[in-house]
């Protein structure tokens, strides 16, 4: 790039216009100094709605307004400018989104084929001379025509640019050609959709000693890479899956939301339903700075009843083929669940995110014991988290018999097979293991050592109690038809 190859070049920019000098003198410029209020609604999938309210004086008739310091990832086709004090008196005739920002490289690119000044300093006398040059190229360095020679490199030289092109700005700017009935100061609100803003929910759950209850703390993690900062912003968050048309985004700005629970001392986000989503509104303003990740308290709920479950799950191909040994020392998964109900101090729509679970050891130190991702969870649903695999609980599985009873074509097979599952418990307390077996085709349990429950058309469930430092067997025989 030019910066790499043009060491020591100083850009002397003679600005032709007042204020920012980035456009013609007739252009009205609005900066964050005019801003009275900004509100940001952030959706789950790299999408946000920005509402930027400013006090601006416009002349009567047509004028050009440069609305500076907007998001660099604005979707200009969604922009909507409204006047709060002059109903139907303001019309946007044309708009241009200038996001080509001022840098030495960009300035050089804009001057390809144009004339600039080159200042050179004599190495012994220090005398400066100025020559006119034409920029021939700005790719991976600068190539100039100076008089009848071609020069590149220019170590220690300085370049003089007579002005900055109108569409090259130091901040992302929406330039609008307006027509106003009356010339006066008025309150204008620019609303637009933008990328570069996102949020996710993160939860921290702490189990009590006997793992029967947990405390839940929720955080919202905001990330801003939009190219703009939003200071003292009214923040709202939308939880839900909002449909977006790709690659064109509609002007209609549909809002979602999410709900929250808090302890009395925790900050609150008010929750409401909007269409089929949930909207969270922060009760105070906050700064959302460019290239920043920040966390905002979302909820806190204590003493929620929880349940731990050990799960061993098989596979349906066991019942289609002769297999024999199906595995030894099979790991048994550990799950934690709780009810999202008001009776359990919760009962709030939970935005999707990651739940990280902790528990204190014998010395009182908090230790991490697992995490899992949850989807958007409505009130009165069960939250179920896979924490990992149990160290002390294992299983050995064998196929004890396999017979083909009928079927000679591609279909209409009938198989009968028997199974033995030995569950081992190295803990010093009794446990119950939930065994779930996916059953293919039409199936029937012919015999079993423990009573099963048909939990779906394709699954059988057994609850097997395994004594401390001991083992237990599950024996069953099944017939399947394809």
Distance between the termini: 66 Å
The tally of beta strands, per DSSP, is: 31
Question: What is the alpha-carbon Rg in Å?
Answer: 34 Å
Can you name the CATH architecture of one domain?
Answer: Sandwich
Unreliable parts:
1-25, 248-268
Classify the helix fraction into a percent range. under 10%
What is the third-level CATH name, the topology of one domain? Immunoglobulin-like
Note the beta-strand portion: over 45%
Q: Quick one: overall form?
A: elongated
Task: Give the helix tally.
Answer: 2
- What is the average of the pLDDT values? 84
Q: Which CATH class of one domain applies here?
A: Mainly Beta
Largest sheet, strands/sense/barrel = 13 strands, mixed
Structural class: mainly beta
Short description:
The chain has 482 residues and is mainly beta.
Structural summary, described in words:
The protein is mostly beta strands. The chain has a domain at 307-349 and 387-481: Sandwich (Immunoglobulin-like). It contains 2 helices and 31 strands. Strands 15, 16, 21, 22, 23, 24, 25, 26, 27, 28, 29, 30 and 31 form a 13-stranded mixed beta sheet that branches. Strands 3, 4, 6, 14, 17, 18, 19 and 20 form an 8-stranded mixed beta sheet that branches. The protein has a 6-stranded mixed beta sheet with strand order 1-12-8-9-10-11. A hairpin with a 5-residue loop joins strand 9 (128-137) and strand 10. It is elongated and about 100 Å long.
